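Hi support team,

I've been running sequence recovery on a batch of backbones for a student project. Most finish fine, but this one hangs at about 90% for roughly twenty minutes before it completes. I'm not sure whether the input is malformed or the queue is just slow. I've pasted the structure tokens below so you can try to reproduce it. Let me know if you need the job ID as well.

Thanks,
M.K.
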């Protein structure tokens, strides 16, 4: 706790699901957390309230990560409020599934705007602004290895995130900043479960040798490892947090 007490972490897409779990875990570890959200202010404020009720420190910050100016403002406000930024967790993203044949321009462009350009926007700001000894954790997906039908556009954006992760780790040489990615498998979030029949959920639960879906807390724990002192020697890597499905 004490080693993180003066450190500031931005968690994108933190108003619910995995992002909220990550924000709460980092706050528990002592980070001051910037709870980023795109549109759901009430949910983001609820995450902040939960963190504060547990004795942590957090603030909500609205920014659509696909908007360059909004991302810059978010970093500006964090620096003004807290003196700097030490950790960036790039959790925000979208997933709309269709075969490549059936993927229209709007689906493709939105995935590129949020998952790829949005991650690029935050990485560029972090590369300029993160304090020495900082941490960057991007979000990929185990689908970049499983490569199932209907995930073509989504998987392509996540594969690009993995490439930028490895390259930025090399580009930040000399600043003691690590850059890694986390690649979850099927995880029991509202976004993941909505619309899926129970038999499909049961089937997915059996895929991993551990025979259950991942929980947001499982992913948050892995992110906390990469963001904390125990992950200091891990750099330029993609960690698959999926219970062994691949």
């Amino acid at each position: 706790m004490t080693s993180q007490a003066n450190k500031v972490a931005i968690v994108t897409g933190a108003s619910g699901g995995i992002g909220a779990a990550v924000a709460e875990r980092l706050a528990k570890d002592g980070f001051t957390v910037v709870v980023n959200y795109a549109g759901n202010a009430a949910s983001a404020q609820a995450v902040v309230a939960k963190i504060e009720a547990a004795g942590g420190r957090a603030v909500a910050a609205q920014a659509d990560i696909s908007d360059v100016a909004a991302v810059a403002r978010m970093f500006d406000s964090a620096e003004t409020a807290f003196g700097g930024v030490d950790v960036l967790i790039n959790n925000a993203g979208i997933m709309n599934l269709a075969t490549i044949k059936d993927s229209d321009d709007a689906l493709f462009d939105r995935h590129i705007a949020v998952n790829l350009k949005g991650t690029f926007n935050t990485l560029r700001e972090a590369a300029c602004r993160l304090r020495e000894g900082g941490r960057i954790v991007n979000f990929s997906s185990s689908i970049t290895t499983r490569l199932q039908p209907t995930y073509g556009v989504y998987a392509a954006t996540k594969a690009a995130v993995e490439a930028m992760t490895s390259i930025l780790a090399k580009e930040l040489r000399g600043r003691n900043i690590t850059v890694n990615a986390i690649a979850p498998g099927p995880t029991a979030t509202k976004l993941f479960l909505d619309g899926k029949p129970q038999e499909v959920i049961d089937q997915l639960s059996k895929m991993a040798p551990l025979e259950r879906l991942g929980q947001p807390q499982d992913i948050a724990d892995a992110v906390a490892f990469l963001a904390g002192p125990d992950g200091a020697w891990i750099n330029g890597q993609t960690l698959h947090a999926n219970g062994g499905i691949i």
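--
Follow-up from support: It reproduced on our side and the slowdown came from queue contention, not your input. The domain at 2-241 is CATH 3.40.50.720 (Rossmann fold). No action needed from you.
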